[in-house]
Amino acid sequence: MSAPATVAERHHHAHGPANRRRRVLETVAPLFVRFPDRLAETAVVVLHDAYGLTAPIEDCCRELARHGHLAVAPILYYQTGGRAFTTDQPDLARSAWRRLRHADLVADVAGAMDYLERRCGVPASSTALLGFGESPHLAAEIATGYRLGAVVGAENVCGLSQDWAAVRHRAAEVHRALSPTHHRREQQ
């Protein structure tokens, strides 16, 4: 009986680390989540602008939850620590946004949609995408792959998403847009 082959005999060439100079693991952004007081039948994926997940974007999620929607905001800058920029840093914010890979952004939204449907039981047809600043184009593009309840964009609020009145107005738009979807579903 022969001795078992050694590692060197079975595998004759050497390797470096598998992840040398490239990303090995693709992942999706963590979510800022706000649940309503009652069982959520509708949800909103809130996409922040170049300034990041700022206090007004978090407030938008809270406002949507007060209206009865489950609100989730992917932290799109998660790979760089989830940084948020102030309104006096527009060049830094836009530069950071341009460094985000499109495929990663699409995966981040897909992860949020998956969380809503699989973990929370809210289907895409009862979900809205709300994009601020640079995100409405992304929201519109992604919407083509889902049968969403609504898509609302706020392109002209880049930097103004720091303004509570603008954010609150967009939250109300989403609420109005989702409400007919919810009522139609109840009647079926």
Short description:
The protein is α/β, with parallel strands linked by helices and 188 residues long. 40% of the residues lie in helices and 13% in strands.
What keyword list fits this structure?
188 residues; alpha/beta; Rossmann fold; disordered C terminus
The topology string of helices and strands comes to: HEEHEHHEHEH
Amount of helix: 40-55%
**Stretches where pLDDT falls below 50 for ≥5 residues?**
5-25, 182-188
CATH superfamily: Alpha/Beta hydrolase fold, catalytic domain
Identify the overall geometry. Answer: globular
Class by alpha and beta content:
alpha/beta
Topology (SSEs and partners):
Elements: H1 7-10, E1 31-34, E2 43-47, H2 55-66, E3 70-74, H3 90-99, H4 102-119, E4 127-132, H5 136-143, E5 150-154, H6 164-187
Parallel strand pairs: 2-3, 2-4, 4-5
Antiparallel strand pairs: 1-3
Helix pairs in contact: 2-6
Describe this structure in words.
The termini are far apart. The model is unreliable at 5-25 and 182-188 (pLDDT under 50). The protein is 40% helix and 13% strand. The longest helix is centred in the last third of the chain and has 24 residues, at 164-187. The chain is built from 6 helices and 5 strands. The protein has one domain: Rossmann fold (3-Layer(aba) Sandwich). Helix 2 packs parallel to helix 6. The radius of gyration is 21 Å and the shape is globular. The chain has helices at residues 7-10, 55-66, 90-99, 102-119, 136-143, 164-187; strands at residues 31-34, 43-47, 70-74, 127-132, 150-154. Strands 1-3-2-4-5 form a 5-stranded mixed beta sheet, with helices on both faces. The protein has 188 residues and is of the alpha/beta class.
